[in-house]
Amino acid sequence: MFWYDNDCFRCNNGDRILDVNFEYTDVESWSLESDDLDAWGLDISTPSIFGTGTTKALRIMEIKPEGTVTASLAQDLNLQAGTTYKFAFTGKTTYIPMAAGHVDWTVLTFTISGSSENAYSGPPANGIEVSKGWRRFESQFTVEEGQAGSNFLSIDISASGLMLDWFIDDLLIWTA
């Protein structure tokens, strides 16, 4: 059992559209796009200073103090028009001291988009501290007619200037 099971992040009655836990996932389904790929890195890692933790997460690394990057998941998300979904994830950074409010999560934008319109786009919202610097974020959105069908998840990051590692885990999308 993982620490997040105690807070029942996976306890919901809705149908799961996306359920990604990086304990059992490889980085091959993710890609990075940037004007300067030398400024960014992507892997799956243990989010601790010396790599001694037990939880694995997607790590997006700011190698330089400026620039932008898009990390995209190559998994089809089939969304239905008129349906309300919840989107959630846990996140952590290498910022020390890691305390609530010290990291500006608004430099990240999560987008769920299809061929014509975004079904959802926004920074992490409603973050709560859950354990050892991990924060849980959750949002809700309703899919309109032009947004239905095949969609994909991407994460846009504008460099914080602090050359942080951003850890993302437990990505979930389910019907509300």
Which parts are unreliable, with pLDDT below 50 for 5 consecutive residues or more? 1-6
Q: What is the CATH architecture term?
A: Sandwich
Number of helices: 1
* Alpha-carbon distance between the two ends: 25 Å
Counting DSSP E segments of at least 2 residues, the number of strands comes to: 13
Principal-axis shape equals: globular
The major sheet is characterized as: 7 strands, antiparallel
The whole-number mean of residue pLDDT values reads 86
Strand content: over 45%
Oligomeric description of these chains:
single chain
Rounded radius of gyration (Å): 16 Å
Protein name: CBM-cenC domain-containing protein
Organism: Cylindrodendrum hubeiense
Task: Indicate the topology.
Elements: H1 3-6, E1 16-20, E2 30-33, E3 40-45, E4 57-62, E5 68-73, E6 77-79, E7 84-93, E8 108-113, E9 118-122, E10 128-131, E11 134-142, E12 149-158, E13 165-175
Antiparallel strand pairs: 1-13, 2-5, 3-4, 4-13, 5-12, 6-12, 7-11, 7-13, 8-9, 8-12, 10-11
Question: What can you see in these coordinates?
Answer:
The protein has 176 residues and is mainly β. It has one domain (13-175): Jelly Rolls (Sandwich). 2% of the residues lie in helices and 48% in strands. It is built from one helix and 13 strands, in the order H-E-E-E-E-E-E-E-E-E-E-E-E-E. The protein has one helix at residues 3-6, and strands at residues 16-20, 30-33, 40-45, 57-62, 68-73, 77-79, 84-93, 108-113, 118-122, 128-131, 134-142, 149-158, 165-175. The strands form two sheets. Strands 1, 3, 4, 7, 10, 11 and 13 form a seven-stranded antiparallel sheet that branches. Strands 2, 5, 6, 8, 9 and 12 form a six-stranded antiparallel sheet that branches. A hairpin with a 2-residue loop joins strand 10 (128-131) and strand 11 (134-142). The chain is globular. The chain starts with a helix and ends with a strand. The relative contact order is 0.29. The model is unreliable at 1-6 (pLDDT under 50). It comes from Cylindrodendrum hubeiense.
